[in-house]
Amino acid sequence: MSYNLIAEGVQKLEHFANLARTCTRIEMFPIEPDAIGIALPLSRVEGAFDELDEILGELLQKGATVHDLMSGDRIASRDDFAALHQRIG
């Protein structure tokens, strides 16, 4: 099982594909031409928040809209990361 998010309005998917190759805890995959799925396997939660925060921060900086698919909440800024960490566990 995994915790899932979606980022829409993503520009330069190739950049994020390269970034995904460096991730050891989370998985990213294209959904549409401008959307990325982000999965955090629950078996890999420990130590994953730094990786997740880096990717989410970059997505937000580049203007993507990110939603937590489990809660339905929008992740609109770095201020939302702590609440996301609590929901994930």
Overview of this protein structure:
By secondary structure, the protein is an alpha+beta fold. It has one domain (2-88): Malonyl-CoA ACP transacylase, ACP-binding (Alpha-Beta Plaits). The chain is 33% helix and 29% strand. A five-stranded antiparallel beta sheet has the order 2-3-1-4-5, with helices on one face. Strand 4 (65-68) and strand 5 (74-75) form a beta hairpin. The longest helix has 13 residues, at 49-61. The mean pLDDT is 91.
Write a concise synopsis of the structure shown.
With 89 residues, the chain is an alpha+beta fold. Helix content is 33%, strand content 29%. It is built from 3 helices and 5 strands.
Secondary-structure map with pairings?
Elements: E1 2-8, H1 13-20, E2 27-32, E3 35-41, H2 49-61, E4 65-68, E5 74-75, H3 81-88
Antiparallel strand pairs: 1-3, 1-4, 2-3, 4-5
List key phrases describing it.
89 residues; Alpha-Beta Plaits; globular
What order do the strands of the largest sheet run in, or round the barrel if closed? 2-3-1-4-5
**Total of domains:** 1
Largest sheet entry: 5 strands, antiparallel
CATH homology-level superfamily: Malonyl-CoA ACP transacylase, ACP-binding
Oligomer: single chain
Distance from first to last alpha carbon: 13 Å
Average pLDDT number: 91
- Under CATH, the topology can be stated as Alpha-Beta Plaits
CATH class: Alpha Beta
Low-confidence stretches are none
By CATH, the architecture is named 2-Layer Sandwich
